[in-house]
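Inverse folding, one chain.
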């Protein structure tokens, strides 16, 4: 059921490294087929659902899971139902899921309400749940840890990534543990306002993998880092303007967490950049300078460009 997921770039970040005094690399998961890391696990979850004879899948989503489930279900010839919390999902992600043929249903309530409804539908036997509670999802997502270790010749000192539901943190921890050459210190970075954060991909009030994250953090001697939305947006701008990486705001939480953590100079850090910036075009438009109108002559253009 592959769409060409995985093998994403691990980009050096020389300007960020120089400014922060660290060795920073960016695991650019926005290069996956639907623009987020979710594709790594979805290819396996959908393939196993097809193997088991199902005809339909269901997920609750703040957006990226919806787009990924819709794409891979279409690839497999399966129906996909997406339950989204009303008014809480960025338009780019909704457009993807709709274009790919998913049946989108708005749930009055939070992501947690939508997830509970998805679980109940799956229990009826008509649909397979493809949220990260599906064990095949994490088995796919752990492959990013293998790629990082292969490229660096071992794990980094620190791995920082956004913390929404926590499944990706658990997947990376599993991947590095299975690699067997040591584990990085994990920084799971969350918004201080989970319920209403600008970073819609991590707008999850109650992480379903909280226990697994706590265990992984303790084992790696890492921490859960809480940052503000202002910190996230500042990191989002830095990634775009210093390194040319246009990501969705939630992805920038990883860098915001690194900046808040006071790491020792020279520490080798990998920030997981989980999704493409076109996932959330409204935030990109709102937080970026507007175009400047000019006359169509070189003098006016030169003056405006100065």
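Residues assigned per position:
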């Amino acid at each position: 059921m592959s769409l060409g997921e995985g093998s994403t770039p691990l980009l050096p970040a020389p300007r960020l490294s120089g400014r922060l005094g660290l060795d920073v690399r960016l695991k650019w998961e926005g290069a996956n087929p639907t623009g987020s890391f979710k594709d790594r696990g979805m290819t396996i979850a959908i393939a196993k659902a097809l193997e088991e004879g199902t005809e339909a899948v269901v997920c609750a989503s703040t957006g990226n899971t919806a787009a990924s489930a819709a794409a891979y279900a279409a690839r497999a010839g399966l129906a996909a139902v997406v339950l989204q919390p009303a008014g809480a999902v960025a338009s780019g992600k909704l457009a993807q899921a709709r274009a790919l043929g998913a049946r989108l249903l708005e749930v009055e309530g939070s992501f947690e309400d939508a997830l509970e409804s998805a679980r109940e539908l799956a229990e009826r036997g008509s649909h397979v749940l493809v949220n990260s509670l599906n064990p095949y999802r994490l088995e796919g997502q752990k492959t990013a840890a293998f790629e990082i270790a292969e490229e660096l010749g071992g794990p980094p000192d620190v791995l920082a990534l956004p913390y929404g539901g926590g499944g990706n943190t658990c997947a990376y921890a599993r991947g590095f543990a299975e690699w067997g050459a040591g584990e990085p210190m994990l920084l799971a970075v969350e918004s201080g306002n989970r319920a209403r954060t600008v970073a819609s991909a991590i707008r999850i009030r109650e992480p379903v993998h909280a226990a697994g994250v706590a265990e992984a953090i303790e084992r790696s001697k890492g921490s859960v880092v809480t940052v503000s939305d202002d910190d996230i947006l500042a990191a989002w701008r830095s990634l775009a303007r210093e390194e040319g990486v246009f990501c969705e705001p939630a992805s920038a939480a990883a860098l915001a967490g690194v900046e808040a953590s006071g790491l020792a100079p020279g520490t080798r850090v990998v920030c997981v950049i989980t999704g493409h910036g076109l996932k959330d075009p409204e935030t990109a438009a709102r937080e970026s300078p507007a175009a400047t109108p000019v006359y169509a002559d070189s003098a006016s253009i030169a003056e405006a460009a100065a």
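The chain is about 45% helix and 15% strand. The chain has a mean pLDDT of 96.
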